[in-house]
Amino acid sequence: VSDQKPLGCWSVKHGQIITCPVVCNFETHEYIAVHDDKVLRIWKNKDINLDKVFKATLSADVYRIHSLPNGGPVVLFKGGGVRTLDVLLEAPQQEIENIISDEVIKWSEAFMEGQQPVLLFATEKDGDFFVYVQKLKMNSLCKYKLEQQELSKPLSFTAYIKNQIITLLCLYSNDSVYKVLIPLQQNSEEEEQILSKSLLLNLSVSGSVLKGTSFAVLDKDHVAVLGSLAASGEDSKECLTIWNTKFQTLQTSKELPLGTSGQLWCYEEKFFFTHGKVLTVIMYKCETSSLAAAVGKLKDKQTPDVSSFVNWNTLGDEELLVSFPSQQSAALKSESKMTLRSKRNAVAKVQPDTLSVGQLLLNLKDASTTVLEEELRQLISKAQMPDLQANIGCVITALINRCKTNPKYYPRNFLLHIVQTRDLSYSLCPDLMAVALEKEDVHLLQICLQKFPDIPEEITYACLKVFLSISESYLQRIDVNLESVICYIDIEFNDKEVKTEIVENGFNAELEQDIWETKIAKETHQTADGEFCPVGPQKAALLNAVLHSAYSETFLLPHLKNLPAQQAVLFLRYLYYLYVKCSEKINTTLPGIQSPTISQIMDWMCLLLDAHFTVMVMLPEAKGLLSNLHKFVRAQVRFYSELNKIEGSLLELQRLNHQKDFQTYSIEVLELI
Questions:
Q1: Hey, CA dihedral for 507, 509, 511, 512, is it positive or negative?
Q2: Mutual orientation of helices 369-380 and 355-363 as an angle, nearest 10°?
Q3: Residue 669, Cβ neighbours under 10 Å: how many?
């Protein structure tokens, strides 16, 4: 979320449109989507091409799919028909009944009441609004009509179930929230009933009126409303607000100057909404409602601004730091730049007793270098310290800030120790790699590339450019982790690589020269196109760290196009060397710790060629490299093609061997046809 790096990306063909939100099946860990209203797609994380995944064409248009943790996916059709996904997949073309005739569905939600899935949806027709309650296991459907409100209509709905009663909350255009109670134990055969509503909340305070667009229930006494707060004579401002419905008070609010889409989601005590161009995630915690808390008089000795020392890593002008007083009953804590894709990193929540860390950092602001490092070492050594990850991020930020104010200060060993011994992320300390790049601290950059799961593509490119530009003689004098190269680059005392014979996947390319026109196995060190590594072991280890770094091709390619031509050729030579090395092995896997995989090598090779193909074709020194690369790939393709031809025979041979019970000694001649 923080660095716009997708974990997975799937797209439909040109002209097709995804027509309802994609959901996850909690039971099978599959994704479910509908495009063009009727076409159902189901796939798993490992699937790449959406065209090759499961497809089912349904007989009616789908409005929404709801996924229940213990009840499985439920499909709601635009005509009001409801099916569980399992029932639907048994006969995708089954007829779906049309229940609501000319009504249009405006909102829907699914719940679990015990073991019973319950679907609730609201419809509109000619200004009248209706509510349907569908109990799937009992095949029971109840229809209600909402009591009309003069000169206003519902804009948004939300609901929850408790004690066999559905509480439906409606946000109306007259800036009010109404509550409607619907008993779940209702006879479906009874005639349509009119639901009466009661005023729950008036969205106005001190002359200002909140024009809400969406809202969510936090607990029985609090709701969150996203909308525009307009005061008389002033321009309206979009903001997120928390209201206490018990005491009819505005609990807290936060202005959102970059604007939102008007949509607010709430899941597992976190808000999700768009702010400008980013998705913002805000944690909240609701405490027991009291009058003192509602009017802001709750006694609390803690410092109210909990974010003054916590590095939430905001996005500059694109994202504002969100900080709300902790003494309020619905305290908000910003998590806008958390790396949600990283399962290794603990979520950094701010607890009250971490305030001492902030005070410590403030006290050490003007301390000497020796005192600062000693105090910080003691701080991070506290294994039981709450929110350890966030606090370590604060420690690194304090050190980096000292580096910026004092260019001669750079605690290299201390920073290296922290990164090596703690599971951190780029988002917790975004300035660390920038300073390391400025100092050309390649060892620290190497460890960061290996450890951090969320490095932006711009930083990955910057590391690659620095690694390729540094001279081999300089790299030989510094400490670099060689674990990823030591097992496949053999080094003599004079730093020349030991020449070994290459056999590529069971065949020698030189012996097949007349057929496949390749002589890769006998290239010399000067050409660097064959079995000798074009870079030294230190630079190779650094480049391997880049190959291991996660990236999105869309965001990396524009930066990669700026790589100087000579560096691009050198990098391609190294990638080609790795490709040849992988091809020596039957399992196409390089030995060693954190060695590049064949997929990483191929992906980077394709990416580099996409970025610099025109330059490569024009450069004389790249001509031989491209030619040999082409020949080697062609040899590999033809070799695997030959293997595919005898695949059936080998499988049959394996089957025959399993069927026969060989004695102590036997000779058998098998003819492959």
A1: positive
A2: 170
A3: 4
CA distance 673 to 653: 12
Distance CA 276, CA 415 (A): 34
Interval 161-171 mean pLDDT: 90
Residue 311 CA to residue 314 CA, distance in Å, equals: 8
d(CA 156, CA 136): 24
d(Cα 214, Cα 241) in Å, to the nearest integer?
11
> Mind listing the pLDDT tens digit for each residue in 218-256?
888 889 999 988 776 677 888 898 888 888 888 888 888
- The H helix count followed by the E strand count for the chain is 17, 25
The span from the CA of 436 to the CA of 111, in Å, is 51
Q: Is residue 344 part of a domain?
A: no
Each residue's pLDDT tens digit, 27-77: 889 999 999 999 999 999 888 888 889 999 999 999 999 998 887 899 999
Note the pTM of the prediction, 2 decimals.
0.53
| The residue count for the chain | 673
User: Where does a domain end: 226, 250, 284?
Assistant: 284
Q: State the total domains in the chain.
A: 4
Do 547 and 638 lie in a common domain?
A: no
536 touches 472 (CB < 8 A): yes
Is beta strand 330-334 parallel, antiparallel or unpaired with respect to 278-286? antiparallel
Q: In this structure, are 475 and 563 located in the same domain? A: yes
Rounded-to-integer distance, Cα 185 and Cα 279, Å: 40
Range of the domain at 639: 620-657
Task: Order the strands of the 176-183 sheet from edge to edge.
Answer: 154-162, 165-172, 176-183, 198-202
Distance of CA 243 to the CA centre of its chain: 31
Asked if the structure places residue 54 within a domain, the reply is no
Q: Using CA atoms, how far apart are residues 444 and 82, in angstroms rounded to an integer?
A: 56
pLDDT given for residue 42 in this prediction:
95
Count other C-beta atoms under 10 Å from residue 491's C-beta.
15
Of 402 and 452, the structure prediction assigns the larger pLDDT to: 452
Claim to verify: residue 595 and residue 624 sit in the same structural domain: no
CATH for 262: 2.40.10
Q: Is 617 a residue whose pLDDT tops 90?
A: no
**pLDDT the model gives residue 514:** 37
Asked if residue 341 lies in contact with residue 297, where contact means CB atoms within 8 angstroms, the answer is no
Task: Clarify whether residues 540 and 560 are in a common domain.
Answer: yes
Cβ atoms < 10 Å from Cβ of 594: 15
Shortest CA distance to 280 belongs to which of 308, 247, 256, 245?
A: 256
d(CA 512, CA 518): 7
Residue 641 sits in the same domain as residue 611: no
Q: What are the pLDDT digits (tens) for 312-360?
A: 233 233 333 232 333 333 334 333 333 333 333 333 333 334 435 555 6
Do residues 467 and 561 both lie within one domain?
yes
Q: How many angstroms separate the CA atoms of 65 and 25, rounded?
A: 10
Domain for residue 311, yes or no? no
**576 assigned to some structural domain:** yes
The per-residue pLDDT for 58 is 94
Q: Is 602 found in the same domain as 465? A: yes
Facing residues of 161 across strands? 166
Among the three residues 241, 256, 284, which one is the final residue of a domain in this structure? 284
CB 323 within 8 A of CB 305: yes
Locate tokens 């070994």: which residue?
Answer: 500
Pick the closest to residue 78 from 22, 121, 25, 110 (CA basis). Answer: 121
